[in-house]
Amino acid sequence: MNRPFASGCRRAFTSSIFKGMLLLPFAGLFTPEARAQHKTDAPPPGSQRSTRSKILNTGADVLQNKKPIDAMSAYLNGFHFYADDMGRQVEAHHFCTHLTEDFHQCVIFDSNESNAKLIGIEYIVSERVFNSLPDDEKKLWHSHNYEVKSGELIAPRIPDVAEHALMQDLVTTYGKTWHTWQIDRDATFPLGIPQLMMGFTRDGQINTPMVENRDKRFDVSTAGQRRKRADIAERPVVNGANVWQSGTSVQLTLAEVQVKNLRR
After folding, report:
1. Based on the structure, what is the number of domains in the chain?
2. pTM (2 d.p.)
3. N or C: the chain end with fewer CB closer than 10 Å?
4. Which domain holds residue 87?
């Protein structure tokens, strides 16, 4: 890579106009209507939080700093599918930090409500960084070209001019996504091992009712977003991304291994 990543840097996604837009109140982003298609209200195991737990949580919230969380400056809503099964599709709520001009990191939840379940992470890099990756590493990444141009990826509740600028920055980026909770199979517990996820690349791949459900909840139009983004310039997808298009992909499997440097 041509320049090091500044680990402590929080930057805006694009121009100074968008920086200003990010200062607008974010209360509208976290409305009850933004539930995902899965049972977000299905509670994980355990009893209701006790009064003691609530007091401790409130105290921690007041007294502790949460700089990594505070640095999350963008909220994106989109869709992923399991790298080895396009029939398993999941709505994903991303909360992202822009560490450098070339690198974003996002935590992914199944909704944007206070009881949302953490289901994964995504790293997003520029085309320049993606080009520098080894071929085996590129197999883990997907392009964002179609997600942006199709209107499938949205940044809810921010003004059109700000969202358009954000999408201009994201259209040539690449993402590596791992879901740690297979929410489509069990909404109550994160069973199993992390799974590699991918993004859609053309019309006809995504579950249309899932998109329609999302659009209704957020009062947006994916088709309308597609028209608005027609002027966003795009570049050919770099070879090595979206490896699943060949008909084979990579995915984690569980295996027993010998423990190295074991200390009993």
Report:
1. 1
2. 0.81
3. C
4. 16-21+70-246
